[in-house]
Amino acid sequence: MAERRMMSKKIIDTDNFLDMPQSTQCLYFHLLLRADDDGFIQSPKSIMRITGCKDDDLKLLNAKGFVIGFETGVIVIRHWRIHNYVQSDRYSKSELPEAKCVELKNKVYEVVGRPMNPDNTYMDTKCIQNGYNLDTQIRIDKIREEENRIETLCHVSHYDVDKSHIEIIEYLNIKTGSKFKATTKPYIQAIRSRLKEGYTVNDFKTVIDKKCREWKGTKLEKYLTPKTLFAPSHFDTYLNSNEMAAMTDTERKVAELNALIDAVERGTDEGTERKDIDGYEPIIDISEY
Asked: Residue 35: how many CA atoms within 13 Å on its side-chain side?
């Protein structure tokens, strides 16, 4: 089986494809990468576990006509021959019995003897899973439309809430040279809470940029962390503050002292064990959402 795969912009640049959620598009790319030389995938569930995609993503791909699913769990990518052409010396014919259930028409797989609906989805037959019929498509589309309507009202997209913490943490690591993990739960919770309050990914990057310019090279540099920058009590202040001009040594010491006093007072007020002032460890709690 060939190890390299290609994809055609004739398919992935269509509105029908781009209208799908990011997770569904991601699943399609991974299926395309791992299909055999005829475009069949024997174990799509394992690929879904690897990518973290859900059953709805696979159902949507089927409902949109990008894949065909069989009762055995096998699926085939309908536009495989548009995406890929494997040279004969590298080609390995699919041994899956489901390959006999489809035929190529204009480089697109169609189920043998199976009529299509006007919207390019297949009418239900025994060859295809009953869960992927037209009623399921309508139900999924309605769910997606409602989610999009709610997300638009809240000014926070599904992608922002579920995926953006990775982009934000990686941006902070690049700016600070740190190695914060995007899988750390307190970081994820803090970022999601700020996003739900209406802040954007660009707002996070603005805060990171401002504080890096102000704190790098000072004692405050150690506080360029998600816990400090994204805390509910700090974030809006950092975002809307005017950037500090280059400070003199005296002004910098005053700013550092004020930060220390604020940190100690926060630790004392919240009942948290007070740190050694000489250690200069501010206590910042991001659990207040």
From this structure: 29
Which neighbouring-strand residues pair with 68?
A: 76
Closest CA to 194 of 120, 100, 288, 272: 288
Phi, psi dihedral angles at 76 (to 5 degrees): -130, 140
Residues 115-161: tens digit of each pLDDT: 444 444 444 444 444 434 444 444 445 555 555 554 444 444 444 44
Query: What global pTM score does this model have?
Result: 0.41
177 dihedral zone (left: phi>0; alpha: psi -120 to 50; beta): left
Please tell me the distance from the alpha carbon of residue 63 to that of residue 226, in angstroms, as a whole number. 41
**Calpha distance 99→96 (Å, rounded):** 6
Pairing of strands 40-41, 67-69: unpaired
For the chain, give the longest Cα–Cα distance. 83
What are the residues facing 110 on neighbouring strands? 103
Q: Cα separation of 97 and 87, whole Å?
A: 22
CA 243 to chain centre: 32
